[in-house]
Design goal:
Order of helices and strands: HHEHEEEHEHEHEHEEHEHHEEEEHHEEE
Shape: globular
Distance between the termini: 22 Å
Number of strands: 17
Strand content: 15-25%
Structural class: alpha/beta
Oligomer: single chain
Strand order of the largest sheet: 14-13-9-12-11-10-17
Length: about 450
């Protein structure tokens, strides 16, 4: 099974402005399933009030969970859905769930034995199709929210390295029920929207056309931080990097979404992405050396971890994802291990870079606490019917990832120095105004799940 790689002192911050599918397991493309074109334009979003979960009194929403695979304690479905069922840790306290998982669909049903045991123990029905799961076996939409978790399972990878997970394939069947029922509910999609930009854009556009909240992305931006700070809205960011292990599509998305979660706090808000480029192998360090802003930020990260000179240049799978924004701001993800995921930003008027690290990842035996914040914000969205952060960020992070994977390939030929992919269609604008979303200390106890069955 494919897995993201998981691996501090943080540097002081100076004057920072912070405040069964039993029928088929095939992966289909959108073009094979639908002939849909002409999507609605994007709408501006507003933030939500922090801690609305505790302030909102209403009936418990019923949720449909649609998963690709749920067979091991290391699968994303196990990490996320158990918390929606049994509760989660948030800001040092165990918090009961305020939603009910009413139905489950498993794309790879036969190998999702853990899910079968859990659902049996919890009296949660497993449906044979996506449509049945969101209608609970009826004729119309019968749930108050949808959670899609398609990050693991036995799925192929294409030539460019895209993991062909059925996120869009499942999502479009949800949309079909929304349209037939003439109503919609919030949707959470774990990780990026799709491995294909056109499909991802369709997914985003449908959320605007049908007027439902959409969220998802990486768990890293909401994981524990050192130091426990966020960038204030309208921070005058000049350039930024994120350093983290990024050997494949799934892993680099974590880094890219982390970069975007900081970068969209910059002065004036998000302006959209102008271009994306991938450089891999030894050429990575030539690019870093030729771009002083990136080299200086990388050196600041190295020193913050007290690494020897040249430490990151010894990375086995060197790579850099270069992002240029429409307003001239630059960003980069540089592959490097040994420091979790670390953001470094060059801030106007600030002598030293701002460095914030997401580190000390608990392993799955400790309930994989990185997804506690996911559970919190999923439930928050289901209760308030508002997006915890602008869904445009999820679309941009998806697009950057897609084009990074495409950059090294042209006409079936690979090049370590990828082409610059111009992205005029990634010109969405929004202003991030939400408060801090990350988990804070004290950390939860390291103990195994209590699943409701013994074997």
């Amino acid at each position: 099974m494919k897995k993201d790689q998981i691996d501090i002192a943080a540097r002081a911050v100076n004057s920072l402005p912070i405040t069964k599918t039993m029928e088929s397991n095939s992966v289909f493309t959108r073009r094979e399933m639908l002939g849909l074109t002409g999507m609605a334009g994007m709408a501006a979003l507003t933030g939500i009030v922090p801690n609305a979960v505790a302030q909102t009194a209403q009936k418990r929403p019923r949720i449909a969970v649609l998963a690709s695979y749920w067979g091991l304690p290391t699968s994303h479905a196990d990490w996320i859905v158990n918390k929606l069922i049994d509760g989660y840790w948030w800001h040092g306290a165990h918090t009961p769930s305020q939603i009910d998982v009413a139905g489950v669909y498993l794309h790879q049903f036969d190998t999702s034995l853990l899910a079968q045991k859990i659902c049996k123990a919890k009296n949660i029905p497993i449906f044979k199709t996506v449509g049945e799961a969101v209608t609970l076996g009826g004729n119309e939409l019968a749930v108050d929210g949808v959670v899609i978790v398609c990050e693991h399972g036995n799925y192929p990878t294409d030539l460019k390295g895209h993991w062909l997970l059925p996120r869009w394939w499942i999502y479009q069947q949800v949309i079909k029920v929304f349209e037939q029922s003439k109503r919609s509910v919030p949707v959470f999609n774990d990780k990026h929207l799709s491995y294909n930009w056109d499909d991802a854009k369709w997914m985003f556009d449908k959320s605007r056309e049908l007027n439902f909240p959409l969220s998802g992305g990486s768990s890293i931006p909401v994981f524990f931080r050192k130091p426990e700070i966020d960038l204030a809205v309208d921070t005058p960011i000049k350039n930024s990097i994120v350093v983290g292990a990024a050997p494949d599509e799934g892993a680099i998305f974590h880094c890219i979404d982390t970069l975007q979660s900081f970068h969209d706090r910059r002065k004036g808000g998000e302006t959209g992405v102008k271009s994306v480029q991938s450089i891999r192998g030894p050429e990575t360090w030539k690019w870093v050396a030729e771009n002083p802003w990136a080299n200086n930020l990388l050196e600041a990260v190295r020193k913050s971890f007290d690494r020897k000179p040249g430490y990151y240049q010894e990375t086995k799978r060197s790579a850099v994802c270069i992002v240029e924004y429409n307003d001239g701001t630059k960003g980069a993800v540089i592959s490097g291990e040994g420091g979790g995921w670390t953001y470094a930003g060059e801030i106007e008027g600030q002598k030293d870079p701002t460095i914030i690290s997401m580190v000390d990842f608990p392993m799955p035996i400790g309930q994989y606490h990185a997804t506690n914040a996911f559970a919190h914000w999923i439930i928050e969205m289901m209760l308030t019917k508002k997006e915890p952060f602008n869904a445009e960020r999820l679309l941009l992070s998806t697009g950057i990832t897609n084009h990074y994977m495409d950059s090294n390939w042209q006409n079936g030929q690979y090049s370590a120095v990828g082409r610059v992919v111009e992205t005029p269609y990634m010109n969405m604008k929004y202003h991030s105004t939400h408060g801090a979303m990350y988990e804070t200390a004290p950390r939860p106890p390291n103990r195994p799940y209590i699943r409701g069955f013994t074997s």
